[in-house]
Amino acid sequence: MAELKSNWGWRRYWRENRLAACVPENPESAAAIERHWSGLFSEFPAGARVLDIATGNGVLLVWGARAARAAGRDLTLTGIDLAEIDPARFLPEHRADLTAARFIGKTAAESLPFADGSFDVAVSQYGLEYADLEPALNETARVLASGGQLHWLAHGSDSIVVAQGRAQLVDIDLLLGSRGPFAAMRAYTRARARGRKVSRATRELTEALRSAEAHCAANPPATLVQELSAGILDTANRFEKYHPADVERWLEENLKRLRGQRQRSRDLQAACLSGRRLAQVERAFGAGPWSGARISSLNVGASGNSVGKLVHAVRR
What we know:
- This protein is an alpha/beta fold.
- The protein is built from 12 helices and 7 strands.
- The chain has helices spanning 8-11, 27-43, 59-71, 87-90, 95-98, 133-143, 160-176, 181-194, 198-218, 223-237, 244-271, 276-285; strands spanning 49-53, 76-80, 101-104, 119-125, 144-154, 290-300, 305-315.
- The protein has a 7-stranded mixed β-sheet, with helices on both faces.
- A hairpin with a 4-residue loop joins β6 and β7 (305-315).
- The longest helix has 28 residues, at 244-271.
- It is elongated, with a radius of gyration of 22 Å.
């Protein structure tokens, strides 16, 4: 997935061992998305030149390489992303599939470094919608050959992924609040290190953890709050076994992760194709170089939950 203009929330994300982002928490739903893409890639003609826009760590191209291999055909696979990516370096277990593709980082969807008509297919999963839509779609059309296809799975307002992102924001805001577990644990750590105002810091930490517990009970599953609060409680209970500087480092490391996660969740909500942004997409496909545009919902699982908007269009 690509980033909004800030980009900072994703720089570190793609340097860790993560193949994908913004996938449903339900493994069955995530598997259904993979089957959808694998089916599409298996139908692309031999020799098709495929561009993955906002590729992240290349999940679509991994699935594409496998599907093409299973179908006994070769595809030319290229992925671009605004982040500085190097998927084969950070995902060694997928290196064989990732080396089948070319990856170009620090590249905006609004300004693609390719000649006109360079690709037969453009794909994107939870990525193209993070760009400035009109120039990004114009660029996509420009680099597609006549008759080229766009297949795009975007965040939609009715998506379970978007709903999970909203819930995650609530959890993160609690954790990062001025009276939340992290602020209270930092004050407790410093009080213990200085030997001053320890009783007050202990009381405030206890109150913060009780508030977190109540939040989890009212907003299940609140996994992030549960896990991090449990880690804070365990550290506080065994504080004498740690050096305060090590606890401070642990807190700072997790604060950085949470701030990045909060920015990514905010970006997701802003990028969602609903209201004005959905109307922008519909207008873009209603004229100009596009034809045969279809926008539908990708529904998965027994309950038929939506995981996003499926967008398909053909370059005239």
